């Protein structure tokens, strides 16, 4: 029986996936090429003696720890990858091998990627990835930014919108006279295509289609940017009059503002997306329920909100202890 190279089976699997965007398919192909095929590509997908759990675990360890250059230990032949990236890559490998298990007739009796222990996302990774700004720190960044994007920054931190959502906002999405308060509707987002161009499409998930209440300060930042514009014009425009591409905004506005703020005493280097994290942190600091935050942020599940931001709730343990003490005190009095 002729072997079935893993690379051929994987290529067919990714090409035949349904229900995904072409950009996602492009990303899967890139991840296969860069991280999975160098280890598994030439193997026979049916060979359980070689393509086994030991090989999968060894591959995961290599992704986690990287490969140093023997000639120069300070250089990398392959840099270590973040836990989240490793989990994503393992997910692709698992799906390919599971497809081989479920083929008709089956090509394998078991999936060697099943039950692989992966690097934890909470071993300090979340703290390193997310940066939360105080009101004073945000005010400093805003003051250091060029005037033509200060309203955008207020909008980011005041709504928690993702960059692709905010950059896609059109005048018709804003309801300045909404009841009981002004609001905006998230109905579209910019999507990167396989050829690196962008097009407008639906938001990230079904839950991302949402209505967000706007504070008076956020409305003050919006109104000057929609006066005299038509319904389908973008709320925020670059100096050329087009929508703000992320790379352009990042290089020409965000990084110069952060560099300037750091020269004035800022000790953090936040990403644009950290304004979204900061928005959540400010809501939590005001004791806004996590279920309300989930809806506002467009998270698919409350679990996502809790896993990502639950550590910002230091008062919860004390509340639990107080509740237990009250219950125990009541039960002891009843017995007495």
TrEMBL record:
Keyword terms: DNA recombination, DNA-binding
Ranges where the Tyr recombinase domain occurs: 128-325
Alphabetized InterPro entries for the sequence: CB (IPR044068), DNA_brk_join_enz (IPR011010), Integrase-like_cat_sf (IPR013762), Integrase_catalytic (IPR002104), Integrase_recombinase_N (IPR010998), Tyrosine_recombinase_XerCD (IPR050090)
SUPFAM superfamilies: DNA breaking-rejoining enzymes
Domain Core-binding (CB) intervals: 4-101
Highest taxon in the source lineage: Bacteria
Pfam families linked to this entry: Phage_integrase
Coiled coil region boundaries: none
Family: Belongs to the 'phage' integrase family.
Protein name: Tyrosine-type recombinase/integrase
């Amino acid at each position: 029986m002729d072997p079935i190279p893993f690379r051929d089976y994987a290529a067919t699997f990714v090409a035949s996936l349904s229900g995904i965007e072409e950009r996602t398919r492009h990303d899967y192909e890139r991840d296969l090429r860069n991280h999975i095929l160098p280890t598994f590509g030439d193997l026979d997908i049916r060979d359980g003696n070689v393509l086994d759990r030991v090989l999968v675990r060894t591959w995961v360890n290599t992704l986690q720890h990287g490969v140093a250059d023997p000639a120069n230990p300070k250089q990398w032949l392959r840099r270590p990858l973040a836990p989240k990236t490793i989990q994503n890559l393992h997910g692709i490998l698992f799906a390919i091998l599971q497809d081989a298990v479920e083929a008709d007739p089956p090509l394998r009796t078991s999936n060697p990627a099943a039950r692989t222990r992966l690097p934890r996302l909470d071993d300090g990774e979340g703290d390193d990835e997310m940066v939360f700004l105080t009101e004073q720190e945000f005010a400093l960044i805003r003051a250091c930014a060029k005037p033509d994007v200060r309203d955008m920054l207020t909008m980011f931190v005041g709504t928690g919108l993702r960059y692709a959502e905010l950059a896609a906002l059109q005048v018709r999405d804003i309801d300045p006279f909404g009841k009981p308060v002004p609001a905006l509707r998230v109905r579209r987002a910019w999507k990167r295509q396989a050829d690196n161009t962008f097009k407008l499409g639906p938001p990230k998930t079904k839950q991302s289609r949402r209505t967000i209440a706007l504070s008076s300060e956020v409305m003050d930042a919006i109104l000057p940017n929609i006066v005299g514009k038509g319904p389908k014009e973008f709320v925020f425009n670059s100096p050329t009059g087009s929508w703000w591409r992320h790379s352009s905004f990042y290089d020409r506005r965000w990084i110069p503002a952060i560099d300037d703020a750091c020269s004035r005493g800022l000790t953090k280097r936040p990403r644009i997306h950290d304004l979204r994290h900061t928005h959540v942190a400010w809501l939590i600091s005001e004791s806004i329920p996590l279920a309300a935050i989930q809806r506002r942020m467009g998270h698919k599940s409350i679990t996502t909100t809790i896993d990502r931001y639950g550590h910002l709730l230091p008062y919860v343990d004390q509340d639990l202890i107080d509740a237990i003490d009250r219950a125990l005190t009541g039960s002891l009095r009843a017995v007495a």
